[in-house]
Design a protein that fits this description.
- The chain is an alpha/beta fold and 169 residues long.
- The chain contains three helices and 15 strands.
- It has helices spanning 3-7, 120-133, 138-157; strands at residues 10-12, 15-16, 22-25, 30-33, 38-42, 49-51, 57-60, 65-67, 73-75, 82-84, 87-89, 95-97, 102-107, 110-113, 116-119.
- The strands form four sheets. The chain has a five-stranded mixed sheet, with no helix packed on it. A four-stranded mixed sheet has the order 3-4-6-8, with no helix packed on it. The protein has a four-stranded antiparallel sheet with strand order 12-13-14-15.
- β3 and β4 (30-33) form a beta hairpin.
- It starts with a helix and ends in a 12-residue tail after the last helix.
- The relative contact order is 0.10.
Length: 169
């Protein structure tokens, strides 16, 4: 695939991204851009590398590598790896868009919701009190209790429920 063919697969504000705004290496299948809020459709094309700004939406084949800013959406084939400063995941990190704030796995042993990042065991003991103190309705309290329970189960299944010590991967 050449750069003009790639351009047809990358939209910004509904229009193909200008050729001068990105680079494409045919040999390594590497797409690099500093732009935000792109829609990137490489459906059926795998083994690519993407480096972008934030707010991008990706559709690709399997075996791709992504380095992005925040708030991106990925729809991929299999064989993808998420790399963090603390290690790697073979499946996407769990994240819920709750009725008040997002709540998500943030790193081994930790959950974050809004600006509060605490260990899993803290959330398991304090989610009800925390939600009530922040004015959540009874329905919302139950919703966030459910998220914490599910996040805990997911973290335990992947052996991510305990914080990693320095030097541990």
């Amino acid at each position: 695939m050449n750069k003009k063919e790639v351009q047809k697969r990358v939209l910004q504000n509904g229009k193909p991204l200008a050729l001068k705004k990105f680079s494409w290496c045919e040999k390594t299948k590497t797409f690099s851009v500093k732009e935000d809020y792109l829609i990137i459709d490489f459906a059926g094309i795998g083994d690519c590398t993407f480096t972008t700004g934030g707010g991008c939406t990706f559709t690709t084949g399997g075996g791709c590598t992504f380095t992005t800013g925040w708030d991106c959406t990925f729809k991929t084939g299999g064989g993808c790896t998420w790399v963090f400063d603390w290690g790697k995941l073979q499946e996407p990190p769990l994240h819920f868009c709750g009725s008040r704030y997002y709540i998500e796995f943030s790193k081994p042993g930790f959950i974050q919701s809004g600006c509060i990042e605490k260990p899993l065991d803290w959330w398991q003991k304090n989610v009800t009190r925390c939600a009530e103190e922040h004015g959540y309705s009874l329905s919302q309290v139950r919703e966030y209790e459910m998220y914490v329970k599910f996040l805990g189960q997911w973290m335990e299944r992947l052996k991510l429920h305990k914080a990693k010590g320095k030097g541990e991967k």
